[in-house]
Amino acid sequence: SDFDAVCTGGSVANAAAFTKPYVVAAFYNDDAKSDYWTDMSVGYGKSYYADSDSVAKVNVVACLPVKTATQTKAKTCDFKGDNGGTVPIDYYSADYDMTYYEAKTGKKIKDGGAISGPATSCPFVASYSKDDPKIIANPDKNTVEAALDAFAK
User: Fold this and answer.
1) How far apart are CA 3 and CA 39, in angstroms?
2) How confident is the model at residue 82 (pLDDT cuts 50, 70, 90)?
3) Can you tell me the distance from the alpha carbon of 54 to that of 86, in angstroms, rounded to the nearest whole number?
4) Model confidence over 17-61: pLDDT tens digits?
5) pLDDT tens for residues 19-30?
């Protein structure tokens, strides 16, 4: 998870050199007001997949910040509240901008395009702010994987 620093303008000094084969760590941020980035585990079994055995080989970071202006309320989901009652939380679809960076330097490699975050079915568990009770859908893993497949060729 240290590679998420690249998504906030940093770099990872002991990351692998930027050369093929690419090993990619991917992160998304669904809250433009926060510096918290969530690790995405995509591409299992593929050459670019960054598992616990290949962390030292990570040389690319894919960052997917949410495009706030694209958030659209899709539905309301009911969750169990602290008091045992039901808490209705609005669930939003959104788009994310994918960008590739060199892990070692933080230098931008290229734009990866827009990735959709569809709010199709309510999540089983979700975190939300009591000040702004809403949930933003995660980037679609299949679309992210297809983009990584094309990038890692």
Assistant:
1) 9
2) confident
3) 43
4) 999 999 999 999 998 888 899 999 999 999 999 888 778 899 999
5) 999 999 999 999
Query: 25 vs 42, 58, 72, 80, 83, CA distance in Å?
Result: 9, 7, 28, 33, 39
Distance in angstroms (rounded) separating the CA atoms of residues 24 and 51: 10
**Alpha-carbon span 57 to 15, nearest angstrom:** 7
Amino acid found at 50: A
CA angle 99, 103, 109 (to 5 degrees): 40
- Going along the chain, which residue ranges are E strands? 24-29, 38-40, 60-80, 86-102, 108-117, 134-136
114 within 8 A of 67, measured Cβ to Cβ: yes
CB atoms within 10 A of CB 94: 22
Single pTM value for the model: 0.92
d(CA 9, CA 144): 21
Compute how many other C-beta atoms are within 10 angstroms of the C-beta atom of residue 137: 23
- What tokens appear for 34 in the block? 């926060």
